[in-house]
């Protein structure tokens, strides 16, 4: 594969994603629903789905119906849960495509049941309960009533029930997490006693799958960890996981600029003496954020980005002349140095998922070590 085809590209190590899938299954000890929303956080939903399914994941989840459609069109037949809102035409398509929807309200139940009866099919759902996230779901006290309402109206098959944790990534034993687990458990107990408990109860994202055995229930719902991103903010990268992503570029230009030469919009940086300034074909239009303190790897060493990041380019201060076309690492390893997404969370004040999802699709994804 000739990477010099592109000024900048992302490399995705599929064997590492397969390894992480097996590691999560081993740690959690329950089946795995792989979360591949927003194009698998920028890694590519079809390639990642195929890889994690072949490594042992048995269900998939996405945020929007059109993401599920893309997977079905690629020939993926595994169960797919859609987390988010769906429109009426999407409900119809979910019935014919066998895609599982989230039932999060009584209005949902009315719509789903009506469409199922009209089309003579069934809407498969996982029920969403809000145990303390404040986003989507019925409140704990309404859950049993909603299950009963679905049974009465018909056309809805409740395969699962789930909720989402607000604090699992933040701290290991956060009291809010304990409260959410308790609420979820009492709902399950109540459903159980009424003979209404769905087959799949699930609560754990990456952080909980790793750190909270009591949150694992019937399956874990994991995204970032499969992609080699750190499950917790508060702990180092776990030894069981492997990094999956690298982001690279070629040096576009290298010039000795005279002393007092302004660099980029606003001249926030000006050379003090004659300096070697390199230009990279990477900008905020690619997902490289305009934040202070950016660094990249050149010849296995960290060099600073100087001046403002532009839409399509940025400049770096080089120690000496570097040949144009030399490989530069934005994220990943070079020589003994490594720039990880963990490091960028601090610099860009956001989540790893936001960083990788934000790598624009004009940056080609190159898949390495595919698993058969
Ligand atoms: C995104 C998401 C997940 C996956 O979270 P990770 O931290 O990436 O493992 C799980 N459940 C829901 C409802 C989500 O929206």
Question: How are the secondary structure elements laid out?
Answer:
Layout: E1 8-13, H1 14-28, E2 32-35, H2 37-41, H3 45-54, E3 59-62, H4 65-73, E4 80-82, H5 88-97, E5 100-103, H6 106-119, E6 123-128, H7 143-153, E7 156-162, H8 175-193, E8 200-202, H9 206-211, E9 220-222, E10 245-250, E11 253-257, E12 262-263, E13 269-270, E14 275-280, E15 295-298, E16 301-306, E17 314-318, E18 327-334, E19 337-339, H10 341-348, H11 352-357, E20 365-368
Parallel strand pairs: 1-20, 2-3, 2-9, 3-4, 4-5, 5-6, 6-7, 7-8
Antiparallel strand pairs: 1-10, 10-18, 11-14, 12-13, 14-17, 15-16, 15-18, 16-17, 18-19
Helix pairs in contact: 1-3, 5-6, 6-7
This protein binds pyridoxal-5'-phosphate (PLP).
Give a quick summary of the entry:
This protein is 30% helix and 24% strand.
